[in-house]
């Protein structure tokens, strides 16, 4: 008898098949959920780091106005006035944007440091014994010092506050007038080592931060001196003194109007009702601080190798801007009501309200930026000096 093939249960086979409609529905549902999640994530990220959107324009720096030079030469250049200052150990020169020398000053500096304060520029020899003050028209003066220079700041009127070492005290603060003549010296005996100085806007007050390391814990002080113009000289007198019970050191200070702010490496203080009070801002690692239009522009990060952020703080202690800005900051500058920051081959220009006015993408590493005459931004890059209007 012939073998019979086993019969197949057609109904069972159909029942075991997967329903193609159900699978399609599931796939569409998963896709929709992923799409919704992506859209939400995009909005969250764009809202948090709005400043990191694509640049408004891309600029080839070599095509901009200025002059080209070697990288080693570019490192010696500082935007100022209507050109740049070139600083070497042997001389200081003020150059036009085409590279032509306007004037030069011979010096003998081992470790020259250059800073720009509005209409003035100053070069001092760190741990040396001399400093030079310049205007756009000429070198105003070069002044030797008795002791080693540790730090220097200038006021809008051209006064200089110089911190020096001393064999007789913990350090001295010397006040010079606009002609470079020493007018007053304060020697620190009981307050510790002078760390930083700052003038107020009208050059009538000078705040000096010190740190006393003689005891079991560090004790910080801030001393404020009043400055007045006498018949033939500047006069300085003790006005106030503040301290704080904590192991901190005030590395920098700023006057915003009549308010005095002080900064450590990771925190911010304000003199309130005659006392140094720590403000409730989470600045884990503070980088650059600039005063622009009575607002503090503060770069900071949450720690080493973390993304840098920019916070803008008004004089009323209100954050008007706070956002991620980039990975590597190469330079910052502030003048009038404008602030520029170079980060990751991007240059952002802010106004004092926190609005981004310009966002440039550049094709070279930036060494320094600063605003110069004619509403121009001077950029010193690896290839030379360039201007952006």
Brief characterization of the structure:
With about 400 residues, the chain is mainly β.
Features:
389 residues; disordered N terminus; mainly beta; 5-stranded mixed beta sheet; 3 helices
SSE layout:
Layout: H1 10-16, H2 20-48, E1 57-59, E2 65-68, H3 71-74, E3 77-80, E4 83-87, E5 91-96, E6 101-106, E7 112-117, E8 120-125, E9 130-134, E10 139-144, E11 149-154, E12 160-164, E13 172-176, E14 182-187, E15 193-199, E16 205-212, E17 219-229, E18 234-243, E19 252-256, E20 259-263, E21 268-272, E22 275-278, E23 285-292, E24 295-301, E25 308-314, E26 319-326, E27 329-335, E28 338-343, E29 346-351, E30 356-362, E31 366-372, E32 376-381, E33 384-388
Parallel strand pairs: 1-30
Antiparallel strand pairs: 2-33, 3-4, 4-5, 5-6, 7-8, 8-9, 9-10, 11-12, 12-13, 13-14, 15-16, 16-17, 17-18, 19-20, 20-21, 21-22, 23-24, 24-25, 25-26, 27-28, 28-29, 29-30, 31-32, 32-33
3D structure, described in words:
The structure is a single chain. With 389 residues, the chain is mainly β. Helices cover 10% and strands 52% of the residues. It is built from 3 helices and 33 strands. It has helices spanning 10-16, 20-48, 71-74, and strands spanning 57-59, 65-68, 77-80, 83-87, 91-96, 101-106, 112-117, 120-125, 130-134, 139-144, 149-154, 160-164, 172-176, 182-187, 193-199, 205-212, 219-229, 234-243, 252-256, 259-263, 268-272, 275-278, 285-292, 295-301, 308-314, 319-326, 329-335, 338-343, 346-351, 356-362, 366-372, 376-381, 384-388. The strands form 8 sheets. It has a 5-stranded mixed β-sheet, with no helix packed on it. It has a 4-stranded antiparallel β-sheet with strand order 2-33-32-31. It has a 4-stranded antiparallel β-sheet with strand order 3-4-5-6, with no helix packed on it. The longest helix is centred in the first third of the chain and has 29 residues, at 20-48. The radius of gyration is 30 Å and the shape is globular. Mean pLDDT is 88; it is low at 1-18 and 39-52.
